[in-house]
Amino acid sequence: MSTVAGMVLAAGGGRRYGMPKALVEYEGSLLVERAVRTARAVCDPVLVVLGARAVDVWRTADLDGATVLANRDWETGMASSLRTGLDGLRGWPGAVDAALVTLVDMPGMTPAALRAVATHAAPDALAVATYGGVRGHPVLLGREHWAGVAATATGDEGARRYLAAHAVTEVDCTGLADPVDLDVPPGGVASAP
């Protein structure tokens, strides 16, 4: 059985939202708490990458035993958070075969969707959830791909370029989770940057 680490990317400043999404309360808990709880239901260990207002998130949120990694370059985009998480896993005690990457701003993510993608875990695995035929999250990155993903990740693209150049298992998660991310406050207008 493969060891799958959960990786929650939660470092962004939430420019369009008006605040870091890790600190956004949604249905009684912070988005980062929801994301960590969902990942913990399937993965061990779970890493959460923080950046914008990281100290506030760390002090405020119940991160349920997740390992916190700080991305000092969070303003450069999601790719730096992905690299921070992968670097943290490279030095992890004990073998981790694959990383299951999720985003903080997807409150409709479920353990069922994570589990469906995680079943493909192996050191050479690349898998991505699809919803109605459209790729989304979570994304599974086998250990053998971490260096390549880190080398090609730029800006807010994360692993997109690497995945486009390699064979990827698409896992239909339609109906298992809501793939919508929160870009602006519910019923609100995006805040000025």
UniProtKB/TrEMBL annotation:
Record-level Gene Ontology MF annotations: nucleotidyltransferase activity
Superkingdom, taxonomy of origin: Bacteria
Signal peptide: none
Entries under SUPFAM superfamilies matching the protein: Nucleotide-diphospho-sugar transferases
Domain MobA-like NTP transferase: 6-166
Pfam families: NTP_transf_3 (PF12804)
Keyword annotations of the record: Nucleotidyltransferase, Transferase
Name of the protein: Molybdenum cofactor cytidylyltransferase
Species: Geodermatophilus obscurus
